[in-house]
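Below: protein 1.
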Amino acid sequence: MGALVLGIGGYFVFKGCARRFRPELRYFAHTRRGHLLNALGVAGHVGKGIALVLVGMLFIAAAINHRAEESTGLDGSLQALLDYSFGAPLILAIAAGLICYGIFALARARWGRM
């Protein structure tokens, strides 16, 4: 399960960096709003992908250690990040990415091609 979640997170990061989401929003192609939605799409997909990668890593760590109580999900992985010096800025970046993904998803739901 952890490898699957990790793979999905990696795909979201790849999809964001490679801008593979652009065909979903042809309505805004070559417009100012299209450039904004491209930026939101990149930041959103990468942020969501990083969050999923963290959850997948926690699932894998719990399976290796034979401690199911360690696989707490997204809230647990973000809480575990706070133990590191770079944790708070990384959590803020993930939060900003998830907000961007939410705005992107709303635009895709309204004008996108499903």
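Below: protein 2.
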Amino acid sequence: MDTGVEITIRYARDADFTALWPILRGVIRAGDTYTIEPGLTREAVRALWMEVPRATYVAEIAGEVLGTYYIKTNQPGGGAHVCNAGFMVSEAARGRGLARAMCLHSQDEARAMGYLAMQFNFVVETNRGAIALWEDLEFETVGRLPRAFQHPTEGLVDARVMYKWLGD
């Protein structure tokens, strides 16, 4: 998808958290896509998004931070060649190609870090936009977790495990 908008993706800096906090807080508090406790403090969310992952990135349009993603090792030891990534886009910027751009960027970054595959552990079934995008980017649903997510309006819904081999 070419939206004609120039998206810049770069490593997140500590100072970026001021711009990231409203994006993260909004998605987390909505409680409909992530299994993150909605009541976490700003500092706890900062640690979760900025310190725990191997790398965190921001996506900007015209210098404004509108999206973010992280990459981290999915499992230690024998599973360390598979990474996990999480993506968030500000509500105002959805539909502008940021998630697609970040996912494509994340795959290149993951390969550069030595990862051979990317796995999304818990894609909520009602997050149809994300599922359609991940499928378009050749992620496969490799498992379903029946009624694994308590959606705030839909009740118990399934979650998917989605996977893409990044190696040659």
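Residues 98-112 form the longest helix (15 residues).
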